[in-house]
């Protein structure tokens, strides 16, 4: 639980350059774009939990800011200063292989509230450069700062940018470049949703995870289930029902509530007397045996008596959050049993996929969990 | 304020010494009385008065307050709080023309019978001297008409100050406000030497108060650094509300006996709409919690959660959003929050353990009837009298043996 602690706001502002962690085998996310387009704000809000309103105080990034993200997978996030053009720089030559060699995705941030023609032109030249040597890099374009814009205007901008990029690329003879577009803002959940999509593409055997969640939803009659990375509130998998922003928002906020409660009441050590008293008569059992589940579990019933929400921690990094159907709260014990089985399956899944290069037999996945029909 | 004190005092005194107890009828009358408190909300135009009012009492999100326009003249609202306390909230538009009007034509109307004055300073204001001059005028008028009023000064919009310097900026401004308050009071007292200088806004009651002598803390003046973007707003408003709640001592004793009975580490009682902490009880172990700001944090967390729910379920912002919440953090702690009385929610934090948790939930449900008096002025005589012996039992066995479910492990 220690790593659950929210980083203090102050710490979030300036992250010291980590002593260049060993980079082998870690997928890397590159954040690039024009200066002042919001790259550092994005990485501070998503990876350091900086409140969006505080990003006003962030200073301009002068050099490549490298963060590593420890979670179920280890990611590296590199925040590039906007003023450096790495392909056309007279003073430095960049080691392209070092930068793009192990890249998982390139995230290009465009400020939608600004004149974006130059940004689009630079993005085009970047794509053309990369396409030659690294054709498999996913390019994710975040059309950013859309919070102040009307829905129609957002879509207009997205269409305009998409067309400009596709036209330019096909003029240069590049067809079907792997470019995806996301409308984002740090002031709502869209930035987390966009990151979720980006990261899901990097997860080996995502289909297996999704199948497990779909199975759980069908058995327990859940409306929607998410597997969250607790630290970033990025969801790494969900069931196969259609995407629904509203359920993501409420589940993600629920994770926040739990994290906050945990910090306030669960992050400080209790005294020895306290423990002694609780383990003594009439209980006569260690505290660990008085509880049913060693990980966090939680439930909340909304007042309209419909759709209870449940949360279950899978391991230090991941939590399963689901929206249930009306009346399911009465069947909690049965649901808990099913959730137990799935959690076990998920744990096995991550054990198997972790040393993915070493275990070629991983594709058969975990033993299919035997769910209790509810 | 004076009659308010007696209302609070009587039930507890009656509980301890039966001789003083004038009978259930008197208790009934006191519990039945709805307290109305006149609360003035003042400050310069644009300082954020209406924004904070909307956040606390109308469940606005901080960013929604941008939509609010300027308050014209006085915006009067009656906020029902806990069923037996009504706040007459006078949100006074802060443009200079209005201010002058309050101080001249409407002076007696505005400043008489004030229970609480909340004065808001905008930390970003360019013209501090002028703000303080207006503040001094307001204080003078207040001392003239409502000597007993409490004054809360909120130094607002602290989020606009760099985090590093916030504390210094606040301390500096707070010292300035204290000095000005003392000066204002001193001037009023000098002007009216025939009135004995009762302790109103000053601690020192020397016959010839000098500004220097008044420099120390006035008991009825409290300063808070606030921002609508974090929990600091809840801290300030919880302390404003705290002193106004009737039967506070009764609530506290009963919460304490409930806490001991169910072996909790902490119990918080929230008002339903504002989610301000009305009362709380903490065990000796719970006191070791290093987070001193946890009460306002809980308000903030639950309130923003409420907002998420209302967005999700499509129900109005002020409607009730959740009925039950439970969270078991392995072998670290357990907690649950539930709808308690009509006007309150209760949050209980307790040691881990399934059996302990389940019996505590049942016991909290059983204890609901003790707190019926929170629900409002109409209390039948019998239950009102019955509630008091419960308080008298105090630290002893809170719940009757019949109600108490033994918190024993299910062998």
TrEMBL record, chain A:
Q: Which InterPro entries match?
A: Gtr1_RagA, P-loop_NTPase, RagC/D
Region (Disordered): which ranges?
1-27
Molecular-function GO term, any one: GTPase activity
Q: Highest taxon of the source?
A: Eukaryota
Q: Name one GO cellular component term.
A: endomembrane system
Which terms does the UniProt entry file under GO BP? cellular response to starvation; negative regulation of autophagy; positive regulation of TORC1 signaling
**Stretches with biased composition (Basic and acidic residues):** 1-14
Keyword tRNA-binding belongs to the record:
no
Q: Which Gene3D superfamilies match?
A: 3.30.450.190, P-loop containing nucleotide triphosphate hydrolases (3.40.50.300)
- Assigned keywords, A-Z: GTP-binding, Hydrolase, Membrane, Nucleotide-binding
Annotated localization: Endomembrane system
- One matching Pfam family is Gtr1_RagA
Reactions mediated catalytically: GTP + H2O = GDP + phosphate + H(+)
Known function: GTPase involved in activation of the TORC1 signaling pathway, which promotes growth and represses autophagy in nutrient-rich conditions.
Report the sequence similarity comment from the record.
Belongs to the GTR/RAG GTP-binding protein family.
Assembly with partners or alone: Component of the GSE complex.
Listed name of the protein: GTP-binding protein
Give the species.
Thermothielavioides terrestris (strain ATCC 38088 / NRRL 8126) (Thielavia terrestris)
Q: Where is the organism placed in the taxonomic lineage, from the top?
A: Eukaryota, Fungi, Dikarya, Ascomycota, Pezizomycotina
UniProtKB/TrEMBL annotation, chain B:
Q: Where in the cell is it found?
A: Cytoplasm
Q: Listed GO cellular component terms?
A: fungal-type vacuole membrane; Gtr1-Gtr2 GTPase complex; nucleus
Please provide the record's keywords in A-Z order: Cytoplasm, GTP-binding, Nucleotide-binding
Keyword Nucleotide-binding carried by entry:
yes
SUPFAM superfamilies given for it?
P-loop containing nucleoside triphosphate hydrolases (SSF52540)
Gene Ontology BP terms? cellular response to starvation; negative regulation of autophagy; positive regulation of TORC1 signaling
Segment forming the signal sequence: none
- Please indicate if the UniProt record lists GTP-binding as a keyword: yes
In alphabetical order, the GO MF annotations are: GTP binding; GTPase activity
Annotated region Disordered: the residues are 188-214
Protein's job: GTPase involved in activation of the TORC1 signaling pathway, which promotes growth and represses autophagy in nutrient-rich conditions.
- What is the protein's quaternary organization? Component of the GSE complex.
Its recorded name reads GTP-binding protein
